[in-house]
Amino acid sequence: MDKKLRIGVFGAARGHSMISILLNHPHAELVAVCDKYEPLLMKAKEAAEKAGLSITCYKTFDEFIQHDMDAVVLANYANEHAPYAIRCMKAGMHVLSEVLPCETMAQAVELIEAVEETGMVYAYAENYCYMKHAFEMWQRYQRGDIGEVMYGEGEYIHDCSSIWPRITYGERNHWRNRMHANFYCTHSLGPLLTATGLRPVKVVGFETVPPENMIELGAFRGTGIEIVTLENGAVLKSIHGDLKREPSSINYQLYGQKGMMETGRLEGDKLLNVYIEGNERCKGTWENYDPVNTIAADFASKHSGHAGGDYYATHFFIEKILGNPDGKWSINVYTAVDMGICGILAYRSVLNGNIPIDVPNLRLKEERDKYRNDNACTNPEIAGDDLLPISSFGTPEFPDEVYDKVRQLWLEGKNA
Ligand SMILES: NC(=O)c1ccc[n+]([C@@H]2O[C@H](COP(=O)([O-])OP(=O)(O)OC[C@H]3O[C@@H](n4cnc5c(N)ncnc54)[C@H](O)[C@@H]3O)[C@@H](O)[C@H]2O)c1
Fold first, then answer.
1. What is the pLDDT of residues 7-49, one digit of tens each?
2. How far is the CA of 276 from the centre of ligand 1 (A)?
3. Which of 17, 174, 202, 353 sits CB 3.0–4.6 Å from 168 for a disulfide?
């Protein structure tokens, strides 16, 4: 292949991870970066110069999208991906979207239809599916090692209170201050859906009480829990939030008809433990080991963020566009939406006394109309009359001083 894919990155905070990968990828090159915060553009430019490349920087998306590019990485605000993804695909660009795929059910429908209409590649950058332990579980499940799934658990416990100034800048309306408990569900649920390849059909949601140390910083929501039924009747538990636990916990379990797999929970544990039952009832063997990534191992080892997951989301996107075999691991729009809408619908369950809610199969055109105008969310700019409370425990009024204090810490480069 002589010509590299020309890729731009929108949002250069988390997006810097993709920027570094694209500056070194054999099949793609970084050509443009967009962020309204200038210091991040400077950082991107410096990294490009160090790699011997020249990139164009933009402060507005409208200018950025005019750049001559084959594809765009969306690493902008987590609740704004779908509208930008749709604009990029309609302008003839492939899209790699950071988490989450959409803010509302209406956006889920519109996003899927934009992919179908334009024929562009949409890939979901759920890097937790490619973490060494999760990716190995995915591959072993697909090989049939533990048989058909009966139960699973996914856990993303990360107390972000200390880094809150760095990731919200003291902005009252930053998405991290405004999202509901169940929104950010794809780090915990995603790897279970990709591993099993099964579709969710029902969800029941829960929200724990909001943590005090987040309330002090102007964020009000508990930890989100989704109990998801899969199309084969298996049940999954997904939990994600700011509970007390250091280091943070990114753990998965899958129980099948022939055995089970679970990730190591404590520092020093092996990353993965696999039990496979033999021919005799209740007797089997254990394997306890640290999986090693073998795909594009040379390049991947240079970008090992998030337990190796960061490299692969971008790499598989590129390989999918190019029609290469590794592109099969790229997460498509249907699976992305399956993951994301479980959280959106789980919150409805929470607000209605934890009732079970059907998860539609939006691959089917006849299931889409019901949701086409469903804008319910916690964002006043999108929800219109369907504005939801930020938490099932209410929407408190925080005085400006709370956010001013967080902003001051950010300006001073300090943690909370
Ligand atoms: N997969 C992971 O491991 C992981 C980790 C961290 C963040 N994320 C995701 O990355 C995304 C970005 O998160 P973040 O941590 O960088 O924080 P963030 O959401 O605050 O950063 C977004 C960046 O995009 C820029 N931006 C947003 N809208 C813009 C616009 N209209 N014009 C110009 N610039 C704009 C902002 O200036 C900011 O620098 C989110 O979707 C988040 O969920 C993923």
1. 999 999 999 999 999 999 999 999 999 999 999 999 999 999 9
2. 41
3. 174
285 Cα–ligand 1 center, Å: 44
Q: 29 vs 55, 76, 91, 160, 388, CA distance in Å? A: 10, 20, 19, 33, 41
Indicate if the pLDDT at residue 142 is higher than 60: yes
Q: What type of residue sits at position 119?
A: G
CATH 3.30.420.40 correct for 128-386: no
CB 411 within 8 A of CB 213: no
- Ligand 1 test: best mutation among 14, 67, 176, most atoms within 8 Å of CB? 14
Maximum Cα–Cα distance across the chain? 66
Atom of ligand 1 nearest to the CA of 125: 1
Mean pLDDT value across the chain: 96
pTM: 0.97
Domain ranges, ordered by start, for the chain: 128-386
Q: DSSP letters of 230-283? A: ETTS-EEEEEEE--S-SS-EEEEEEEESSEEEEE--STTS-SEEEEEE-SSTT-
